[in-house]
Amino acid sequence: MSLPPALRASVTPPELELIACQQLVEIIPLIPMEKTAFIAGAYGPLRPPHRTRIPIWMALNLKQKKKCHIIAPEWLSVEFLEAKIKQETTQAEFTKLPFRFAEISRVLLDGASDDLQNPDKLRTLLQDLREARQAKARAGLESLEHSTLGLSNLSAMEINEIRPFFIQAMAVLKQLHVPASQ
Predict the structure, then answer these.
(1) Where in the cell is it found (predicted)?
(2) Is the pTM of this model over 0.70?
């Protein structure tokens, strides 16, 4: 999202993607590999054709070298996303999604689209879901009160996008609010 410099106080989308790459994803290794220790922890051993869970950053590195196939998370499917879009457009509250779904889906679609079923349709559905959730967030911010705000089930990327606007809006509302006792 393109923001003016004054509003770029929060974490950038690439930084959020980097953080999301610490999440574990399931892979099918194509080569055997012993347990390997990293700063973040030890992963492995890899024994084809048995599935194993490793961080996304490691899976993408192995995928790039053609040493594994990445298994998409269950929520990264056409059926799941279609159901979530339907819920999002028919219910008042935000639907429950993985906290880092936007970042993880983008990283996997960019780095392992050949391992995903129907990646073009997934991109379209993710964009539709994003637009539906953004519209709902905008509507919620329009009815903002200084004392309470309920926006549960937002993802990390969505929180990051509205944070600058929210902070400024709350500062203005706080200045405008005069307690009844004064």
Answers:
(1) Nucleus
(2) yes
